[in-house]
Amino acid sequence: MQELGHWIDGKRVAGASGRVTDVYNPATGEVQARVSLASKAELDAAVASAAAAQPEWGATNPQRRARVLMDFVRLLNRDMDKLAEALSREHGKTLPDAKGDVQRGLEVIEFCIGAPHLLKGEFTDSAGPGIDMYSMRQPLGVVAGITPFNFPAMIPMWKMGPALACGNAFILKPSERDPSVPLMLAELLQEAGLPDGILQVVNGDKEAVDAILDNETVQAIGFVGSTPIAHYIYSRGCAAGKRVQCFGGAKNHMIIMPDADMDQAADALVGAGYGAAGERCMAISVAVPVGERTADALIEKLVPRIEKLKVGPYTAGDDVDYGPVVTAEARQRILGLVESGVKQGAKLVVDGRDFALQGYEEGFFIGPHLFDHVTPEMDIYRQEIFGPVLSQVRANSYEEALKLAMDHEYGNGTAIFTRDGDTARDFAARVNVGMVGINVPIPVPLAYHTFGGWKKSGFGDLNQHGPDAFRFYTRTKTVTSRWPSGLKEGGEFHFRAMD
C-alpha cells in the first residue's frame, strides 16, 4: 500500500498527524494508497518555512524566476505520459483527457514565463517640479491555493504558476482524493531549480483549510470547488483580511437556435456534456433548443450518439469516451438526482441507471443519461449534478432561452449555437455569465485571457490566469521622488500643490 505524505522544503515527508484517508482507483473501487491529512501544526510549520524562504525568491530577478518556469515546461513535456497515467489512475479520466488536464496547466505556465513584462510598473516623469512618480508590483509574501479533485494538474498550475512568477511562496492544499500528481509537480519544479520551501504541498481536509484561513502569514487564497465551500472560504478569508478569489459551482446552458447546424450542435453537446463523466465546472449540463421542431430534431440527433458512447477504464484504450466518477459517494449522489428527475416528471430518454461494466462491477461507473422536458423547478435543473447527465429544457423563443440562462443562480459558462451574427452578438452582450461560447461548447479562455464566472460561480474581483492573476498575486506600491537641485530651501509647513 502506497503511503503519501506532503512536500515540505524540497522533499517528500511523512505526515505526523496520525490521520489518513484512502485514495481509490475509481475504475476498480479498490484502495490503492493512503494519504496523510495534515494537522494545524503541520500546516503552520509549512507556512513558517515558506515565509523564511520567500524574501530571497522575491528579490530574485523576475527573468531568473521565469527561467525556472521555462525549464518546468520542458520537464512537463518530458513526463507528460507519466503524469497522465498517474492522474487517470486516481481520478478515472481517459488518458487523452488526462493529458489535456496537464496541457492546459502547462499553457498557463508558458504564459507566466512572460512575467518580466507583466510585472513592469508605471512611470510619470516630472509630475511636479523635479518630482517623478512610479509604481512597483511586489509579491504578497506567502499565498495559498486550495484545489479540487476534477483537475489535479491544471488548477494547481493555474494557481502556483502566476504566484511563483510574481515572487511569492506558495502553499498548495490539493484534493485528498487524487493527491499524487500535485506531489509530482512539486518534484518537477524542484528539478527545474525552484528553491526549497517556495512551494509546499500540504495534503489535508477541512482542518488544513481552516489552518490556512486562520494563519496570519498567508496573505492570499485561491480556491476552486463547490459554491457552499467557496462562499465559506471567501467570507472567512476576507474577514481575516486576506485577498481571496473563489470559484464555485456551475450550471452551464447551451442555447440551440432553429438555424443552427444540428449535427454540429449534437456533437458539441455530447462532448461537452459527457466528457470526463461530466465532472467539469465548464460541462454543458443544460441544452435549451428554441422551438418544438428544434427540440425534437435535437433529441433525434442526440440519442444515437449517446447510446454509442464507450464507457470504461483508462486502460481500455484511447477510444474510451469517459471513465468512472471519482468516488462511490459521488456516484450515489448523481443517481439520486437522476431518480429525483424521474419522480418530478422529466422524461428520461436515455437511461443509464442499470449500466454495469463486466469485470469492473465494483468501479464507480455511471451510464449516460439524457432528460427531456425538464423544467426550472426540478432538482436536476437547479443543482449542479457533476455527472454524465444532460437535461433538455424546451424554450418557445430566444428571449425565453436567454432568460433561463440569466435567471439561474450560477453564471460560470454558457454557449449559443446559431448561424445568425446578430443573435450571437446580442447573446454575448446581454447574458450575465462570465464565459460565453459562440458555436463553441466549452468556452474556456486560453492562458493569456482570464477565467472566471459570475453570480454564485465566482467570489472576488479578479479572475484566474491571464493578467488578472498577476494583479491578484502582487500589490502595487507607488513612489513619489524628488531630488533637490540648486539652492536648498528650509522646511515647508503647508501642503504644496504639484503645479
User: Taking Cα atoms only, what radius of gyration do you get, to the nearest Å?
Assistant: 25 Å
Structural class, please? alpha/beta
Number of helical regions: 16
The overall average pLDDT, rounded, is 95
Attribute tags:
499 residues, Aldehyde Dehydrogenase, Chain A, domain 1, seven-stranded mixed β-sheet, six-stranded mixed β-sheet, 38% helix
Explain what this protein looks like in three dimensions.
There is one protein chain. The chain has 2 domains: 2-248 and 457-479, Aldehyde Dehydrogenase, Chain A, domain 1 (3-Layer(aba) Sandwich); 252-438, Aldehyde Dehydrogenase, Chain A, domain 2 (3-Layer(aba) Sandwich), CATH 3.40.309. It is built from 16 helices and 23 strands. The protein has helices at 40-58, 62-78, 80-91, 95-112, 115-118, 154-165, 180-192, 206-214, 227-239, 262-274, 292-307, 328-343, 379-382, 398-407, 421-430, 467-472; strands spanning 2-4, 6-8, 11-13, 20-25, 30-36, 123-128, 131-139, 142-146, 169-173, 199-201, 218-224, 243-247, 252-256, 284-289, 347-350, 369-372, 389-392, 410-411, 413-417, 435-438, 454-455, 458-459, 474-482. The strands form 6 sheets. The chain has a 7-stranded mixed beta sheet, sandwiched between helices. It has a 6-stranded mixed beta sheet with strand order 10-9-8-11-12-22, with helices on both faces. Helix 6 links the parallel strand 8 (142-146) and strand 9 (169-173). The radius of gyration is 25 Å and the shape is globular.
Task: Briefly summarize what is shown.
The chain is α/β, with parallel strands linked by helices and 499 residues long.
